[in-house]
Specification:
four-stranded antiparallel beta sheet, elongated, alpha/beta, transmembrane helix, 63% helix, binds adenosine-5'-triphosphate, six-stranded mixed beta sheet, single chain
Length: 591
Amino acid sequence: MPVAAAPTPRTTPRVPGPPRLRLRRELTAHPLRLAGALLLALVATAAGLLLPLLVREIIAEFSEHHPLGPAVLAMCGAALAGALSQAASGFLLARIGERMTYRLRIRLMEHSLRLPLAVVRAQGVGDLAARITSDALLLRQVVEVATQLPLAALTVGATLLVMVWIDWVLTLVTVGALAVLTVLVLLILRRMKGNVTGQQDAVGRIAQRYTATLDALTTVKAYRAEPVAARALAADAEELRVVSLEGARLGALVPAVLTLGNQFAMIAVILTGGARLAAGDLEVGAFAAFLLYLLQTVPSVSTLATGFGRLQAGLAARDRCNELLDLPPEADPQDAALPVPAPVPDAPSVVFHGVSYTHAGAADAALRGISFTTARTGLTAVVGSSGAGKSTTLALIDRFIQPSAGSITVLGHDTRHWPLDALRARIAYVDQAFTLLEATVRENLQLGRRTPADPHELDAALDAVGLTEDIARLPQGLDTPIGREADLSGGQRQRMALARALLSDAEIILLDEPTSQLDGLNEQRFRAIVGRLAATRAVIVVAHRLSTVQDAQHVVVMGRGAVLDAGDHSTLLARCTPYRDLVASQAAPAH
Ligand SMILES: Nc1ncnc2c1ncn2[C@@H]1O[C@H](COP(=O)(O)OP(=O)(O)OP(=O)(O)O)[C@@H](O)[C@H]1O
């Protein structure tokens, strides 16, 4: 049974994770690039501001019959300079954004690999994947927006100043209209951040259910559960549609309010300007320039409004990424600095001292004060009824979880005194699924090694598990990428996992034996390999097959979270009724 609940607070002390994502620090990580982008954007803005003034000049030149050439040339130059600097600034900003997203993704992925197993399972693989893909993507736009916003504000401010200089009465009318507009837009934007968080949470839920469903696709197909699974996915999609629709409604309001506000401003300015023109308080050229400036503020005001909306979305994504970064890793940074203890000569491989463990959320303890010892080398079988606590026991040895009470000693030292990395380097864990990574055969075989294995060692390990021919038949032999379920058969995967254990440097091998029956040849191979491993190392196997139990020098009998007895096969047969019952239930020849 998988051991997958969040650990109890007692067992996992809160340790600091990597630093949270701080947007300001990220944005200023490359000050020169940022300054360059801002400068270019400023040039583009200045060029834009210059154009209406040049129009005013051209109108004046027209009325005074002066040559237009220089003014037209200046206009074309300003337009070209504006366009080029805008493009260059956009590219620089995109570079900063891509770099920030890249660094963030790496930080998030590294952190998720360091989270406790139980936390990752509780959080959901799909949900974590959504944060690394979709949230990180949303965050990228913050860079663009964070630089666009001050520039747009600057443009609006500078334009207003020039407008005051041209005609302060018309400017007052414009500011009045813009103020009403701003209040309305801010009201809408306040609701948008909460909506984006809702949308991203819904994306995470879909991703989670979708990956879980695809992981169980064989079962889904075998039980013709496609309609059921599709209905559940459709319900998640519907939830996302509803929350996104609310977002779209809010989003659609922004440009509508903007357009309306601008049109009102334009009407008010035309009416006031017309009256002032008729009264002789305003010149035609100045009025035309003012109108051009007013038109020019429209995109900047839009940029401000939509920019704030995108900023809210980015901030919501930042919060979701920070939620992930806030999850405490399984080992604190000081753990790596612990001195690596040298294994105590002749100490038992593993000692449990009154160990208890309760899974988070579980009503009962999975283990209640268990104690047992396993020798430095040799095969120890852990047996017991389903739910007795066997897998939990293995998970504790590898420190996937930590005891609620009692202590565990590995090679003479308490597991808490081992740096996690050093502890796991001493232990090879072979799970029931014989999991392979999506990597080449060679990489999969060498996972547990500190130094690469030479070709002879690889050949010998493959030969020992009877995989030489199977691997030779793969298109690229040892360099064939594998790891997806369809690549290798169950038996081949099992033998790959055993070859990996053979090649590893570990002194202790933990083996969660699958319950499925192997064919005769593979069972013999399995026993031979386990025997070979046990000759020089400690092999602790959660045993379901009697053949494995009978080969063991030491058997630990578990029942309902307790150790009922321990000893060798014949001693236990003679004195331990639950063991005798277990053996009898498997119809083994009792000897
Ligand atoms: N993630 C979890 N959350 C809550 N309870 C759990 C969790 N994992 C295991 N348990 C409970 O802890 C107890 C021991 O489980 P464990 O998987 O260690 O038993 P096991 O002896 O390995 O069983 P099996 O032989 O069926 O695999 C069981 O009662 C089980 O229901």
